[in-house]
Amino acid sequence: MTLATTTPAAAQDGVPGPEDDPHIWLEEARSDEALDWVRAENELTMAALASDPRFETLKAEALAIYDSEDKIPYVSIRPDGLYNFWQDKENPRGLVRRTTLESYRTDSPEWETVLDVDALAEAEGKEWVYKGSTCLPPAQNMCMIALSDGGKDATILREFDMATKSFVEGGFVLENESQGGIQWLNEDTLLVSRDFGEGSLTDSEYPLSTRVWKRGTSIEDAPEIFRGEQSDVWSGASLLRDGDAVVHGYTAFRAVSFHETEHYFQKDGEWVRLDIPLKASPYGIVDDQLLFSTDVDWKTQGQTFPADSLIAVDLEAFKADPNGATKTLVWAPEDRQTKQGATITSDSLYVTLLDNVRGKVMKLDYADGEWVRNAVDLPENATIGINASSDERDEVMFTVTDFLNPSSLYYLDGEAGTMEVLKTSPAYFDSEGMEVEQFEATSKDGTKIPYFVVKPAGATLDGTNPTLLTGYGGFQVPRLPAYLGTTGKMWLERGGVYILGNMRGGGEFGPGWHQSAIRENKQRTWDDFIAIAEDAVARGITSPDHLGIQGGSQGGLLVGTAFTQRPDLFDAAIVQIPLFDMLRYHLIGRGASWIGEYGDPRIPEQREWIEGYSPYQKIVEGVDYPTPFLWASTADDRTHPAHARKGAAKLKSLGQPYYYYEEMTGGHSGGVDNEQRAQLQALQYVYLLQQLADDEQTGG
């Protein structure tokens, strides 16, 4: 699969084509003409920003943090030890390595290298980026390793033996680059959802079918077990497997939109569609109970289960009658609560919650016909995540973090009833004298929108503070307080203020917070962000001359809408790996998969919603925009670099100042190694300092 798009040559259903868009040629990701343009833009940006005397210092600061030997080596728990993926200056592409819990408890664990990605890349002449592994439970020694050439989402898969630390000769191999993945049915059988050739991908370029692949046979001959429709976002089959590695049957799904999915269970060889809402899904098996989660109110069996709740059915009753098994409430959120991540150990379900954007953890067990809920004793007023858990025992690792205090890794041994701090990250910046405050802005429709401000305690509120405002506001993804690390070192220590917004469209307050700002109501997200900026100015925290904004992917669209709708409110805008041309986004990369979030520009009514804010079309002659910094990655096969490229090209055509930079490898997350990541950070913070802090501001 190539990265170049299959964009139509002419307009279709009112969507702009070449006659309307002189920059459409930049949608070809790797054409010679496009790459020549990228190299020329990179040279200009490097000349302007890397020549700043602060650049090398900033880059060194970022690289020291990324390469730090003292950072927490986060792990996964497997029967044969704790596994970690590690990158540093000696191993830029990384090592897959393992140790024991006893050794991990020490300050200097003894690590055993399982896979050296740098050595593999050098031996094969590839830009390999490690994308994880999928292993056969319960032993988890037989794995399929995912590798990406250059960092894009599409990967190849190869069978790897963790015991011998080697790829299996003659083992399972899927060398065609593709989205999708596999599941192990047993040691000789895989469920495979991939690009199988013509007719095997959806319109969003994701797999639409799953095959059962037996060892020693060709994947081309593997029988298909489930097939969705080409109009689906994606679809496929999976295994209903419990924590003891017992397979209870096949399940399947059809994502008919990004946020709506049909679910199926195979009974007596036939697929039975589950009678659950399109915004509900299976959640896991705990104590022989099958759990479901719902993002909408679910009316069934004379009951109404509220949105964001957990519902259970007896597993054996479900297998006998998938739609008739009795449903019971496990948990429902209180006001301003929402569940986040979850994990299932050998004995219990652990769920992380947000309570007014503060983290909590709940332990759930089913005993004597009742669900028992207990709070896990962890620090308050922090962001809490689940880092690792075991299928073999009742043990979990939690990350605990906030803006100013280094992250800590807690280890709970549920069987022993003990909790301990295993690791604490070093302090990467001096937070002495800094404080965190939470405020609320009033959005255009009167809704109160919370945001956090990190600043020096007692900072003078005279509007002169260089301030960076960031956020996301989409896909029910929350942006939460987390240790600022590089931002603290490169921005806060230099007198900057940091603001994190929690706009509608995100997941900070559950599915309702998200669903209130999608499709025809997506402008609410942009209104919320602008309201936060206006509120910060009104409080004297900053002023338009000193206020910059930053966001990536959906957050890049957020920044694009903000600086085109309110160019008077900002003096810097970092537009990272963005969506930008929203009238053609469904034709670029995997954009069609997000129609459920934004709408379909081919439908006149929905095009009208989108046309009202699409940043690419909103860049017009005669407006004095803040000088933006747009950056992307050539290897990004998710949002595709065309969005950022075309934004920069249009600004250039109008004589507007801008910066553009494109990393030639790295995928959706930017650089593939610490050196590239540090350079990207340094470029951005030089830009922010020039635009917001220097007496004489510059443009590109």
Quick tags:
700 residues; alpha+beta; Rossmann fold; 3 domains; eight-stranded mixed β-sheet; five-stranded antiparallel β-sheet; 14 helices; 19% helix; disordered C terminus
How does this structure look, described?
The protein has 700 residues and is α+β, with helices and mostly antiparallel strands. The protein folds into three domains: 29-63 and 428-693, Alpha/Beta hydrolase fold, catalytic domain (Rossmann fold, 3-Layer(aba) Sandwich), CATH 3.40.50.1820; 71-178; 179-273. It is 19% helix and 34% strand. It has 14 helices and 39 strands. The longest helix is centred in the last third of the chain and has 20 residues, at 674-693. The chain is globular, with a radius of gyration of 25 Å. The two termini are 35 Å apart. Mean pLDDT is 94; it is low at 1-10 and 696-700.
- The CATH topology of the largest domain turns out to be Rossmann fold
Q: Low-confidence runs (pLDDT<50, min 5 residues)?
A: 1-10, 696-700
The global form is: globular
Please write the CATH class name of the largest domain: Alpha Beta
Identify the CATH homologous superfamily of the largest domain.
Alpha/Beta hydrolase fold, catalytic domain
Order the strands across the largest sheet as they lie in space.
32-33-35-34-36-37-38-39
